[in-house]
Amino acid sequence: xxxxxxxxxxxxxxxxxxxxxxxxxxxxxxxxxxxxxxxxxxxxxxxxxxxxxxxxxxxxxxxxxxxxxxxxxxxxxxxxxxxxxxxxxxxxxxxxxxxxxxxxxxxxxxxxxxxxxxxxxxxxxxxxxxxxxxxxxxxxxxxxxxxxxxxxxxxxxxxxxxxxxxxxxxxxxxxxxxxxxxxxxxxxxxxxxx
Length: 194
Hints:
Elements: H1 3-26, E1 46-49, E2 64-73, E3 79-91, E4 105-110, E5 119-124, H2 125-130, H3 133-145, E6 154-163, E7 177-188
Antiparallel strand pairs: 1-2, 2-6, 3-7, 4-5, 4-6
């Protein structure tokens, strides 16, 4: 065998050896495990019972109407805060109103359900409509609910509506009606580390 051939065979053998060594350095043991994880969101479910708090006819200046309703937490999460938005529509029967009927309907939120005489906050429907939900919460709902509504809890609210007799001519409201809409919104408590 010639020197060239021996040299070629040596180079080929060296390359083959190096390639086997290179392949060996990339071989390794391995193992894997699969985990199955779940994120399930809770629910906020605020209910008001009854859903129609007040429905009266033939009221006159000086009339007072006491109503009691419940805020219920039927969800799976605690409610941290309840906000109240007020809206209403006045149906002017004769088309002669120069004033807002809502300014003449006073709302008293009462605290003591036994005596029904301790007023948390007193305002008119017109003023309540202009208040932000946060202001309503601060003056009305926070004093009653404190730390919110825990899961499964029920809080009673008493409200007195008064058609204020201002001692002046209120004839423009004869035959009128006011449709009140209260929207209660629940907000969650702060997130926590689990």
